Amino acid sequence: MNRHVAVLMGGWSEEHDVSMDSGRACATALRKCGYQVTEINLTRDLKQLLEAFKPRPDVVFNALHGRYGEDGTMQAVLDILKIPYTHSGLLASAIAMDKVQAKKLLANAGIPSPAGTVVTREDLENGLPLEPPCVIKPVNEGSSLGVQILQDRDTTLDISLWSEGQKLLVEKFIPGRELTVAVMGDRALGVTELEPKSGFYDYEAKYTDGKTKHVCPAIIDEKIAGEAMRFAERAHHTLGCSGVTRSDFRYDDTGGEPGKLYMLEINTQPGMTSLSLVPEQAAVAGISFEALVDWMVGQAGFEH
Questions:
Q1: Helix or strand or coil: residue 104?
Q2: What is the pLDDT of residue 125?
Q3: I want to staple 247 with a disulfide (CB 3.0 to 4.6 A). Which of 76, 127, 137, 232 is the partner?
């Protein structure tokens, strides 16, 4: 009998719709690979999830994005049930989702990131802790949700982006270019430059066709490309990640190349849609989408 893979998608984070796209794409690819596939649109009803796990799957393909899906919460449930799952385990997922804790570990590993400080929404009402240009973003959200860039003191601060008491990371804005590197297992696949048609690489730019140009491989200094790939691999291993991750960087080449590379964050459950960066880098490296998801299922485990 073919192995049974349950694909978790949806969830209740603000990234629900993107997760549904990722889940459906992965489910289709897994069926092409010969797996028996069950698609599960996850809700907060734990009883519903347990019912959906009948018959018990051999592996869970975790296509959830955002809080509760990639922050260790669902990983803990699957660890308790002892059902192998794709991507990183509980601890690595939780640390990677917490940008502040991840920055501390990555700094100790010699990976530079923008200078920053943690505040609450209420703190910002009393003034900025850093001089603009600076970036304000939630400590534990993905897909650039709740991100605001203040280019100068005249830029209006939109407090409504965040909830009361929410922890926010205020970082120095790094000029230059946006780069990303996917890591598959123990090796980086390549470097992609992201060129948004307008503004910055926000949620709309990530998930709307035609909003961002992907240059893969990135046309940058070879030394910087190699450094970005080494940093991505080191971040993956430092946090104890498994399967596939994607690391995002800012590359300040405003003074000419080679410039200075800064790591922004590591994503333990990157998108798997038709516009997603990991499948694109895999394709350039000669790995089909079906081969990628098949490999991810083969790497699945629990209590990583």
A1: helix
A2: 83
A3: 232
